[in-house]
């Protein structure tokens, strides 16, 4: 038993990497470790199936970390059974339920994988989930911060849909569907891929989302994504993140993708279960109809975007040292600010949120980027709300 940050307890035996017992190793190198972090609060009735799906993965190198948010249902008994059946699983018990984001941060701190998957305890991974995501990451010509696969939607135990993502209309148009985006890792480096050869269709089922392109939500919810650890390092240390409570996917995906880009995988590799207690999705999707209340209490998109801007501004020196040029920094913040609906200043509706932050932090930013460049950025933002409104009005006008 080991206390972690005075809030969590590790249960079970020491964590050992799951080793694939098949083919002999051809070298001293191995496939990357993938940490699957299962976050649970009062989902004891679903938790076992979620964890079973982690240990049923085709991929060899996986560690499973379960973070329980002080559940009051049957979760405690289920966790004891899991610890007995899966000795390598790590269970972290939190003393208080402080929300999904705080639990994910704790799970990340306890993990060791080069890739991270956050799995909600009421969702399920298909057995090919980790294998496919790692294969795509290893095959990519452009190293992005995350991959996002489609998800099935289930009402209790019945599959209703095989998609959850909003990008499928674009995928049908084959926009940015690049067959040359992948160099199949199993073909070019077969000695490092001891698993089955990936079927050829994967090359036509990936789509690149370029950095700075976050205009519409095209990714899957939490359980459909696989993050690079070093990409998460850019944002998961934000001290404000635990205060978001939930919707960690909105914050991390938008923040990471706007800087590093992301890749969509056109395969449903996990199951999103709707059971009446979901904080976000209330019913299966219908094309062209939202399945949540926009700007309702569960829609934290605006708040997460403000947090991304705050985090980047507060850590401007670090981001300036990591990005190729200063223009990447301001273009990323402008992209986050100008997503519809554009973020407005809390003190002056005529200004954007970014313009307000550039003004209040002008001196600190000038120490990093220089006064002339910051003054130019501030000038660009003076009428950003008007520009954004005009741009979106033009999109809504009927075509002649």
Automatic annotation (TrEMBL):
Pfam families: Glycos_transf_2 (PF00535). Residues 35-129 form the Glycosyltransferase 2-like domain. InterPro entries: Glyco_trans_2-like, Nucleotide-diphossugar_trans. CDD domains: Glyco_tranf_GTA_type. It comes from the Bacteria. Keywords: Transferase. Gene3D superfamilies: Spore Coat Polysaccharide Biosynthesis Protein SpsA, Chain A. GO terms for molecular function: hexosyltransferase activity. This is Glycosyl transferase. It comes from Methylocella tundrae.
